[in-house]
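Input sequence (90 aa), recorded before submission:
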Amino acid sequence: MDEQERGMMTLFEAETHSFLLRLWRENRDDPKLPAEWRGSIDHIQSGQRYYFRDLAEIGRIVTSYLGAGADPADLAFMPINVGVERESKT
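Predicted structure, C-alpha cell format:
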C-alpha cells in the first residue's frame, strides 16, 4: 500500500463508525403478555454501550454519532448492488 492509499484509508476510517447490534426477547412476568424485544448497541470506536427497549431507539443512537445533519429516516437499510449482475468465475 503506497502513501496515497494509506492517506485515503485514514480518511475513510476517520469517517467510519462501527456498531455491534444485539437483539433478544425477554418474557414478561405475566405469561398472558407477549415477550418484549430488547437490545444493545456498542459503538466500537468509543466502547460505549447503549441499552434500549424500543427498536426506534436504534436510529437515534446511530444518528447521534453521525452529526447534526443526519436524519434517522435516512438510515433505512437497502440492499447494495441492486440490479448488478455477478460476474461468473469460469
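Checked by second reader. Helices lie at 3-14, 57-66.
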